[in-house]
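hey so i finally got around to running the thing on that chain from the lab meeting. sorry it took forever, my laptop kept dying and i had to restart like 3 times. anyway pasting the input first so we r on the same page abt which one it is
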Amino acid sequence: MSDKNQRQATLVHAMTVAMLVTGVSIAGPAGAETTWSLFTPFSTNDKPTQIYRAFADDVAEATDGDLVIDVYSSGELPYKNTDVLKALATNQVQIADLALGPVAGDVPELTVFGLPFLCTSTDGFYKAIDAAMPTFNERLQSKFKVHALAGWTMPPQQIWLRDSVSEIGELEGKKIRTWNKMQVEMLDLLGASGVAITPAEVIPALQRGVVDGAITAVIPAYDWKFYEVVDAGYMLNFTMTDQLIAVNDGAFDSLLPETQQALVETAEAWQVKFKDAIDVAAGKAAENLEAEGMTLIAPTEADFATAREATKPLWQDWADANGEVGAKLLQDVRAACSG
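ok and heres what got predicted. didnt touch it at all, straight out
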């Protein structure tokens, strides 16, 4: 090999190593493999992480190996759920499990699904996410150069309590772990108080009685062994989480057109697969919690109506604070969830 060719080969090798170290995808000619990093803030053995691994396998198959997605869970990369949007926008990861609630500080105008008792069923959510997606993507792309390929949800959020309650009024005075501002405001209107605690601190806080309860869905309630520290779940179904399969625009644009299409189609198919898998997992988690001795309490229609009416002012307050985007999302999601 000539000196010139040797220098060129050395330069190419150095550039390749640098790109791999910094996490930049290497796009090449047709048939060349591109590797992306996908981050989800769920833990390694949590059900959503398992589903994302299966999604990644499907993407590799659909693209004939042109796009390989490595899935990283909580603790495997130095990000929290509040960091996901920024990590995605800066191409530290190319695809992510993006929940809008935890990044409310960056996109407060998109947190419509956090409004209590606005959308309270899985079926309603999947109608509403399709209605909301164009607005979500318009804002995500203009502000962060990020867009969502699909959306999914965990089961409805519930209140898990050390001591059982029989009616909505018995929440008064209780301290309950929350994970977003809207939940704090909801609890205030119901006579309780919200306490911000990281996921790792939830079980110890419940054990020590630092809090009387915690908000989460039925699947993590079982995965995190809530049955060891609480007696009951008050199944209010007060809100759905909005999880987006989101990608960095630049990374997406660098893919071959046929790879882009295969990725988009696979993500759309997995919106349905997420729903089916989560529904099955939620049913099993509820059965397991009851088998472990927990009581799952269904509120009466009157108690549900009382809670909904008490917190309904939050809807318009949120829309007023978030201008035209907030007003449109409230209108679109409310219509879809109730339709």
